[in-house]
């Protein structure tokens, strides 16, 4: 029988202070019984002699001081794991939210996980074909990578994420694939977009969802991504599956974290977020990866909406320091009807060089994307110049670059939600676009590749 | 000395990585303790009455009041001896490879594996002409630790007396290899010595750095060089290539030993280093880079307090190799994470915060860390020739939003002598390394002038001055172009624009992932730059003689100059020939028939004008 305490001393925001407690351990979970008999769960944030500080996941409304009863369960927050979690929908704390039965656990796992030993990691180097040119061609995603989408309110990040989940395949492999989706504080409609799309494509059978909607308790969001990643780790490293984890929206997660920090009266860091936001985010993002000797992998695509599209806001900023690159969405491209509106220049995949090349995609891939980037960047510069001084003042070369940038946006970036391009198509499209520039401008590409891949028409104009 | 080793403390409070324990009187600041029955490693960071505040280097979930705290009576130390090279450690010197073998892919808690292998026997060879009286720093023998590094076995600091019974042989690091009879009794000598991480290892005296630390990175070696024994700061927003710069330096710096500290960064990056270093060859020795490297990995998801310790662990190991008379380079990526760990602990101690929540002692800690770098005359006993060791420190800084007014950047800039400013807009253009040529600086430039003149070329100093001038002019000319368009520029100015573009794209831009371009020797750097500058000089002359600027800048020869970076080191005479070709091609433009006389005449007039 667990000891019961009716010694709540104070309640403030999501926090509960309990007194005269013995045998409490940091990080353990407690059960709170309300006067009406309903149960809430909370986690111990601090133990100071006989005083406990508890964060209540489901919120503190209705909890009173004299009659609420606290039981310490003597373990951390745990998730029931079994192969049957596939195809199921859970709440933010990992309890079933659909009509299905409770999971009969093969084992229980602490949702906080443990850090992966860097020595045990296997380097992510298997190219994932997403069918999206701006990703495959310019910012290739590899298995075990964490690549966030930096978006803004009103931008179609969810459609891009759905497209990724639908199209992502590893070339020449028919291995088991699963999608884990964690919704943190997003609206019902947004969550439904995922669920419907996964249902339409039949992928729902291979998906696990952890849903905490906008009207669900905010503090529960602290546990949601951790529960999702615990499920992902189980599927990847015990069931040998390749798991794509989509976390949406990390901004809501960080706000929940800030709420707790504020209630604890901690010294705030930038914009009121706690000083340990970086470390906290790292304990989520760093759970992606591959492990030596394990067949599965965890690839992570966190989505976050940047407040006011500001990349230097603490959430995108700290995320960018942990993740291996970022895909940025552009409002200006979106307005011009270019979808998906991936802002190519500030987007980056840090692991691209390991995932591409002769046996993975094609030998010319690296040189080609370098050249496309450089040319597009110069084209954008020239466009800006033309906007100030008028088109007439541009040199012939600059005009060629402006034309290139236009074509690049309309043919390469723009492709729509349902066009699934192979990597060959993406690479050839890149070469095709480069033919509008003189060969002497293609400095970033090795001669041998120019000879081999540059379309014929271009080679003849060499001395132009 | 710990007077009662059976004394035990008792936990009264747990808050994240901070634990408070009572019954701790008699313990000292920065002593190591083991917390709870799981024996988590912790360090005392505050004492009040019989209460001690302990930062715990491991996850504290499941720990609660009433559990014991075991006192060791020793400060946090690292084991220094054979076996360091090729190791990968966490922040408190636990070998990650052995942890993996013992405990699996996740890092468990309470593991206590020693930093150095206790089983392995090393062949110890005696030094020649050993004196009878020895003192700290005296080299008494050596161990071939890896093909690239010979570890010198030294008398530990603080030991002085008569050397007794030292003999060569095969020893483990804990075997006694000999004794020193000191005034206070005999001290056993071992291959291993333990040194507290927060205390700099002693040396005889400091010297000013005099030699460059060559990196094979053109923008660094030519424009913003660092010295052996120097310090550099690499701040930049995410995605600007800090880590690639650090990796490139760890690969190509011309030091004997490299210590790489991955402090609070990505796990996959450490894996990258781990996989790549055994494959890559040191250009000097031809041996794998791993054979001269020590890695310390405390990734961002590993416990935060150990992150705080990791930079100290790293620098103590680096100092130990410096003491042997080696040149050592330490890369810390990223010192911001170290500062954040300090901030987190400070907040839990409820200390009064200074800027951005960082503790008030932030700047002092950063300064004293960088000051452990330097060129020093090592302790070497009384009879030996003085030997010199150098320790260079290159710290990456990750300022929030790339904002250089960040406290960590500012505190670092006050002590580091070299500033490589990484810029997001250069990175967005894929100009790598994204080191801004206008904003960065190196305060070692002047002190290295002699070295460059003697070892590379007489005119190098002048060439670099010209390069800087051209880049500065370019930024001004670009302003004009932005306002009134390119045709408002004179032919000379147009050529300046073109040349500086060539300097940027063909010289400063360097592809870390290209087999040839990743590393450039000083000789090749010099030749590449002189080709570009020579073209500029001859181009100006040709313009003066009436050649058309557009013809000059569209010469196919310029493409050859641009591709010089891909010419392999063994064929660099091709670049020398290129310089000659520039002469003939540009002379052709301004009328071949009168070339000889005209060129001579022009030369004279331009010289006259310059006077």
Low-confidence spans of chain A: pLDDT under 50, at least 5 residues? 460-464
Distance between the termini of chain B: 74 Å
Global Rg of chain B: 28 Å
How confident overall, as mean pLDDT of chain B?
A: 90
CATH topology of the largest domain in chain B: Rossmann fold
Q: Biggest interface between protein chains, with counts per chain?
A: A-B, 83 and 79 residues
CATH class of the largest domain in chain A: Alpha Beta
Beta percentage of chain A is 15-25%
Strand order of the largest sheet of chain A: 9-17-16-18-20-14-21-22
Give your account of this protein's structure:
Chain A is α/β, with parallel strands linked by helices. Chain A contains 14 helices and 22 strands. Chain A has helices spanning 133-138, 157-167, 188-200, 224-237, 250-263, 277-285, 314-322, 331-335, 352-355, 365-389, 396-413, 423-434, 447-453, 456-460, and strands spanning 4-5, 8-12, 15-18, 29-33, 39-48, 51-56, 69-72, 78-81, 89-91, 107-110, 121-122, 127-129, 141-142, 149-151, 169-170, 177-186, 207-213, 242-248, 290-291, 297-305, 325-329, 342-349. In chain A, strands 9-17-16-18-20-14-21-22 form an eight-stranded mixed beta sheet, sandwiched between helices. Chain A has a seven-stranded antiparallel beta sheet with strand order 1-7-4-5-6-3-2, with no helix packed on it. In chain A, helix 3 links the parallel strand 16 and strand 17. Chain A is elongated. Chain B has 611 residues and is α+β, with helices and mostly antiparallel strands. Chain B folds into four domains: 3-75, Elongation Factor Tu (Ef-tu), domain 3 (Beta Barrel), CATH 2.40.30.20; 118-196, RNA polymerase II/Efflux pump adaptor protein, barrel-sandwich hybrid domain (OB fold (Dihydrolipoamide Acetyltransferase, E2P), Beta Barrel); 205-439, P-loop containing nucleotide triphosphate hydrolases (Rossmann fold, 3-Layer(aba) Sandwich); 460-599, Orthogonal Bundle (Bovine Mitochondrial F1-ATPase, ATP Synthase Beta Chain, Chain D, domain3). Helices cover 35% and strands 22% of the residues of chain B. In chain B, strands 8, 18, 19, 20, 21, 22, 23, 24, 25 and 26 form a ten-stranded mixed beta sheet that branches. Chain B has a six-stranded antiparallel barrel with strand order 1-2-5-4-3-6. In chain B, strands 12-11-9-14 form a four-stranded antiparallel beta sheet, with no helix packed on it. The longest helix of chain B is centred in the C-terminal third of the chain and has 25 residues, at 460-484. Strand 5 of chain A pairs antiparallel with strand 1 of chain B.
């Amino acid at each position: 029988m667990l000891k019961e305490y009716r010694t709540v001393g104070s309640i403030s925001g999501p926090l509960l202070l309990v007194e005269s407690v013995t045998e409490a351990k940091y990080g353990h979970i407690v059960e709170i019984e309300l006067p009406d008999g309903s149960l809430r769960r909370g986690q111990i944030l601090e133990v100071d002699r006989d005083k406990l500080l508890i964060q209540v996941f489901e919120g503190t409304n209705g909890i009173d001081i004299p009659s609420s009863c606290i039981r310490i369960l003597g373990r951390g927050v745990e998730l029931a794991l079994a192969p049957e979690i596939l195809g199921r929908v859970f709440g933010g704390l990992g309890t079933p939210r659909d009509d299905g039965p409770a999971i009969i656990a093969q084992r229980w796992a602490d949702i906080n996980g443990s850090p992966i030993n860097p020595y045990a990691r296997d380097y992510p180097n298997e190219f994932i074909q997403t069918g999206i040119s701006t990703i495959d061609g310019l910012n290739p995603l590899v298995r075990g990578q964490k690549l966030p989408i930096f978006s803004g309110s009103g931008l179609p990040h969810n459609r891009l994420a759905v497209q990724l989940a639908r199209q992502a395949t590893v070339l020449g492999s028919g291995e088991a694939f699963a999608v884990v989706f964690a919704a943190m504080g997003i609206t019902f409609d947004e969550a439904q977009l995922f669920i419907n799309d996964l249902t339409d494509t039949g992928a729902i059978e291979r998906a696990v969802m952890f849903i905490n909607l906008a009207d669900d308790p905010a503090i529960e969001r602290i546990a949601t991504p951790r529960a999702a990643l615990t499920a992902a780790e189980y599927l990847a490293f015990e069931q040998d599956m390749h798991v794509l984890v989509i976390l949406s929206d990390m901004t809501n997660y960080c706000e929940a974290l800030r709420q707790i920090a504020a209630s604890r009266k901690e010294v705030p860091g930038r914009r009121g977020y706690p000083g340990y936001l970086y470390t906290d985010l790292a304990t989520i993002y760093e759970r992606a990866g591959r492990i030596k000797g394990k067949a599965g992998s965890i690839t992570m695509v966190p989505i976050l909406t940047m407040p006011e599209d500001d990349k230097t806001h603490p959430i995108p900023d700290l995320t960018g320091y942990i993740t291996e690159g970022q895909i940025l969405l552009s409002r200006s491209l979106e307005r011009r009807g270019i979808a998906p509106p991936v802002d190519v220049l500030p987007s980056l995949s840090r692991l691209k060089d390991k995932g591409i090349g002769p046996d993975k995609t094609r030998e010319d891939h690296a040189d080609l994307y370098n050249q496309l980037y450089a040319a597009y960047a110069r084209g954008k510069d020239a466009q800006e110049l033309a906007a100030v001084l008028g088109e007439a003042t541009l040199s012939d070369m600059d005009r060629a670059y402006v034309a290139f940038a236009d074509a690049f946006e309309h043919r390469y970036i723009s492709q729509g939600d349902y066009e699934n391009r192979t990597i060959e198509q993406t690479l050839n499209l890149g070469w095709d676009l480069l033919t509008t520039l003189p060969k002497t401008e293609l400095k970033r590409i090795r001669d041998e590749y120019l000879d081999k891949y540059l379309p014929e028409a271009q080679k003849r104009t060499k001395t132009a | 000395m710990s007077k009662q080793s059976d004394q035990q403390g008792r936990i009264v409070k747990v808050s994240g990585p901070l634990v408070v324990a009572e019954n701790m009187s008699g313990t000292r600041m920065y002593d190591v303790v083991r917390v709870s029955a799981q024996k988590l490693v912790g360090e005392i960071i505050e004492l009040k009455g019989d209460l001690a505040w302990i930062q715990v280097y491991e996850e504290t979930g499941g720990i609660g009041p009433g559990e014991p705290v075991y006192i060791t009576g020793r400060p946090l130390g690292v084991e220094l001896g054979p076996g360091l090279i090729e190791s990968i450690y966490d922040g408190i010197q636990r070998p990650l490879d052995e942890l993996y073998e013992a405990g699996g892919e996740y890092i468990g808690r309470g593991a206590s594996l020693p930093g150095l292998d206790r089983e392995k026997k090393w062949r110890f060879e005696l030094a020649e002409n050993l004196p009878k009286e020895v003192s700290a720093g005296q080299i008494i023998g050596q161990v071939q630790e890896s093909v690239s590094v010979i570890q010198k076995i030294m008398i530990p600091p603080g030991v002085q007396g008569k050397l007794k019974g030292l003999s060569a042989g095969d020893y483990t690091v804990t075997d006694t290899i000999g004794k020193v009879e000191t005034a206070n009794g005999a001290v056993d000598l071992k291959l291993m010595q333990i040194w507290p991480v927060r205390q700099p290892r002693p040396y005889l005296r400091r010297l000013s750095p005099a030699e460059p630390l060559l990196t094979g990175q053109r923008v660094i070696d030519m424009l913003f060089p660092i010295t052996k024994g120097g310090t550099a700061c690499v701040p930049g927003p995410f995605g600007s290539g800090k880590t690639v710069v650090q990796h490139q330096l760890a690969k190509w710096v011309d030091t004997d030993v490299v210590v790489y500290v991955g402090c609070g960064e990505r796990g996959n990056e450490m894996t990258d280093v781990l996989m790549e270093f055994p494959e890559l060859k040191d250009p000097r020795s031809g041996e794998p880079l791993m054979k001269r490297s020590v890695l310390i990995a405390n990734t961002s998801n590993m416990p935060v307090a150990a992150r705080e310790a990791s930079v100290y662990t790293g620098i103590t190991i680096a100092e130990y190799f410096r003491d042997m008379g080696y040149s050592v380079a330490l890369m810390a990526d990223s010192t911001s994470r170290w500062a954040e760990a300090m901030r987190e602990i400070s907040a839990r101690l409820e200390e009064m915060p200074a800027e951005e929540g960082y503790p008030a002692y932030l700047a002092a800690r950063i300064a004293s860390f960088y000051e452990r770098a330097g060129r020093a005359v090592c302790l070497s006993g009384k009879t030996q020739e003085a030997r010199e060791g150098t320790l260079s420190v290159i710290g990456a800084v990750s300022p929030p939003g790339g904002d250089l007014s960040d406290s960590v950047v500012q505190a670092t800039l006050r002590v580091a002598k070299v500033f490589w400013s990484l810029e997001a807009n250069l990175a967005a253009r894929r100009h790598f390394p994204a080191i801004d040529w206008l904003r960065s600086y190196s305060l070692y430039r002047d002190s290295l002038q002699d070295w460059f003149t003697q070892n590379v070329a007489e005119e190098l100093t002048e060439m670099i001055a010209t390069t800087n001038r051209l880049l500065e002019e370019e930024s001004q000319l670009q302003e004009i172009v932005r306002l009134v368009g390119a045709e408002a520029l004179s032919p000379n100015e147009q050529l300046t624009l073109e040349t500086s573009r060539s300097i940027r794209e063909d010289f400063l831009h360097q592809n870390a992932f290209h087999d040839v371009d990743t590393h450039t020797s000083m000789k090749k750097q010099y030749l590449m730059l002189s080709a570009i500058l020579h073209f500029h000089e001859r181009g100006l002359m040709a313009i003066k003689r009436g050649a058309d600027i557009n013809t000059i800048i569209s010469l196919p020869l310029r493409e050859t100059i641009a591709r010089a970076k891909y010419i392999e080191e063994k064929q660099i005479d091709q670049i020398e020939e290129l310089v000659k070709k520039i002469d003939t091609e540009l002379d052709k433009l301004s009328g071949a028939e009168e070339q000889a006389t005209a060129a001579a005449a022009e030369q004279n007039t331009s010289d006259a004008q310059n006077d």
